[in-house]
Amino acid sequence: MLNTITRSQRRFTTAIISVVLLSAATVSNAETAEAKIARAITAAPSDITNDATIMDVDGTILRAGTNGWICLPGVGLIPDDQHPMCNDAVWMKWMAAAASGTAFTTDVIGVAYMMAGDPMMNNDNPMATDPNDDGVWRQEGPHIMILFPDMDVVADLPRNPFVGGPYVTWDETPLAHVMLPMAAKVPPK
Ligand SMILES: [Cu+2]
C-alpha cells in the first residue's frame, strides 16, 4: 500500500515541503530559544522532556538531550504553528517523509506526545486548509499519536473523532495514524 502513493498524495507532500521552508523562515527569528524550549517541554511528561533534545522546526538544536526523544516548539509542517510535540525516532522518520514527499514505512510502532493540543485539522484530508473544505474538522486537546507498521491492525477503530476514544486520522493516506485523546472535545461550529 505504501508503495502506491497516488499523484495527488505526492502533490500534497511536495506542498508540505514549501510550507516547511516558509515556516522555518518566518518563525525562527521571532522568538527566543528559551521561549521555544519552554513551549516544547509542555508537550510531554517531565520524565520525557527533562532529557529530551529540543529541536526547532527548522532542525536547529536548541538543547541537546540524551534519551532519544525530540521535542519541537510547533508542528513544523504548518506555518507559524505553536503546538509543541515530543517525538520518538519513528515519528521523526514520519516527519521527514512528510516533508520530503517520500513514502513512510516502519517495522515498529511510533509514539508522539502532544499534551498541549493540536491545531485545527481536517481529519479526512491533511491538505485541507479552508474551514469550508469537505471532511470532518477537529481541534484535539491533549493527546498521544501512534504510528503502526500496518494500519490494517487498527481497521476497527472509528474514523469519527467525536465518538470518544482512539480514532484514525488521515485514513487511506501515507500519513495515517491513530489519535489517542486525553480530554473530551466537541465539533467546531
Ligand atoms: Cu497531534
Task: Write out key terms for the chains shown.
189 residues; two-stranded antiparallel sheet; alpha+beta; 4 helices; binds copper (II) ion; globular; 8-stranded mixed β-sheet
Our count of domains comes out at 1
Sequence of strands across the biggest β-sheet: 2-1-3-4-5-8-10-9
Overall form = globular
Overall pLDDT metric: 88
Give an overview of the whole structure.
- The structure is a single chain.
- With 189 residues, this protein is an alpha+beta fold.
- The chain has one domain (7-181).
- 24% of the residues lie in helices and 19% in strands.
- It contains four helices and ten strands, in the order H-H-H-E-E-E-E-H-E-E-E-E-E-E.
- The chain has helices spanning 7-27, 33-40, 46-49, 89-100, and strands at 53-55, 61-63, 70-72, 85-87, 110-114, 120-122, 137-139, 143-147, 167-169, 177-181.
- The strands form two sheets. An eight-stranded mixed β-sheet has the order 2-1-3-4-5-8-10-9.
- Copper (II) ion is lined by residues 114, 118, 143, 145.
- Copper (II) ion binds next to strand 8.
- Keywords: Signal.
- Residues 1-30 form the signal peptide.
